[in-house]
Design brief:
The protein is an alpha+beta fold. The protein has one domain (2-117): Trna Endonuclease, Chain: A, domain 1 (3-Layer(aba) Sandwich). Helices cover 33% and strands 36% of the residues. It is built from two helices and five strands, in the order αβββαββ. Strand 1 (28-36) and strand 2 (39-46) form a beta hairpin. The longest helix is centred in the N-terminal third of the chain and has 23 residues, at 2-24. The N and C termini lie far apart (36 Å). The model has no long low-confidence stretch (mean pLDDT 89).
């Protein structure tokens, strides 16, 4: 139980860092930790007239791989579904621009990958 709590607190800390960083880069944060049956999205924001769904990955060390390497095909599928549901809930039209970003944090370095992966329809 303690290890799970520790991972959660590290994840929250990483998401907090990412939100501050993105806001400093001009992103308007709309929502954090959006959860639905379809999946979870860490940060949802608006940047340069585009709705942005952000996956945050945090690693204390890269011994087990880089944070961005943890964004797997399976994970992206959950993000697509959750993003589709979010857009439906908030009445975003088909013509509304959106993208998927990844923020990778390891040690003291933050890497922001804009348009990190494409949306795939079922």
């Amino acid at each position: 139980m303690k290890e799970t709590e520790n991972r959660r607190s590290l994840g929250r800390r990483g998401e907090e860092e990412a939100a501050r960083y993105l806001a400093g880069q001009g992103m308007k944060i709309l929502e954090r930790n959006f959860v639905s049956r379809q999946g979870e999205i860490d940060i949802i924001g608006y940047h340069r007239d585009c709705l942005v769904f952000v996956e945050v990955k945090y690693r204390r060390s890269e011994r087990t791989g880089t944070p961005e390497s943890a964004v797997t095909l399976q994970k992206t599928r959950k993000i697509y579904r959750a993003a589709d549901y979010y857009r439906y809930l908030h009445h975003y039209g088909e013509d509304e621009a959106f993208r998927y970003d990844v923020v990778a944090i390891s040690r003291e370095e933050i890497r922001w990958y804009q348009n990190a992966f494409e949306h795939r329809y079922r």
